[in-house]
Structures are given as C-alpha cells and as structure tokens.
Fold:
Amino acid sequence: MSPQPVDVVKALFQDFGQGNLQGLLGRLSDDVDWGGDKFDTDVPTHVARRGRAEAAKFFEAVVKEQDFQKFEPRQFLANGDDVAVLVREEFQFRRTGTKVSLDVIHYFTVSGGRVTRYRSYYDTSRYTAAYRG
Structure:
C-alpha cells in the first residue's frame, strides 16, 4: 500500500530541511515534471525540468543561489493525489546580496507514493528582479 500523498510531501519537506538531497530525489518519480510554467529561463530555478536527474539540478541551483533564513511550511492541504503547501520563505541571493521574503504555494501531484508533478506559485517578478540584481 502506497503512503498517503500528504505524507510523501511532508517527508520530502523534511528531507529538504535536513539537506538530504538523495532522500528527497528518491521521493520523485523517474519522469517527474518539475517546475515549468515560467518564462525567465536565465533564472536557474525557473527552468522546466523533466526527470529525477533534471530535478536534482533545480535543488543544486537553490543551494548555490539562495541562503535561507526561513523556510517554514505553514499548512499542508490535501485533496486526493494533490497536495498544496503554504510556505513562508526568507532568503538572500548569494550573487546579489538581495534579501527576499515570499509566501509561496508549492503544489504537488503524487502517484504510487512518488511525486509526479510539481509547480510553485509566488511573485516571480520580485524574485527575478532580486536574482538579477
């Protein structure tokens, strides 16, 4: 029996918080659809990714580019295979020194105990401006 989708996502967040990239990647399907829907592709975290190896590049970019002061999941909302997580993020871009505070919705689809799709929703114009300096 597969774990509940919300439990998969909670474990993924726990892995992220502990810096356990291998554990996190193990919770993704082989062909996970990660990110997408963003057009400013000079920003490494805005590039659409397909598959576990490509998703790893997203997390490598996050670690390289962002110094987190806060990454706080506030609420997990589940409906069938879909899980939305309301997160408060505060970080500084290493390249520009610009500080960013955002409320983000992380949206996951889970099937067979693995994340098959991920999207995030936030003020991308503010994020991109801070990234570019």
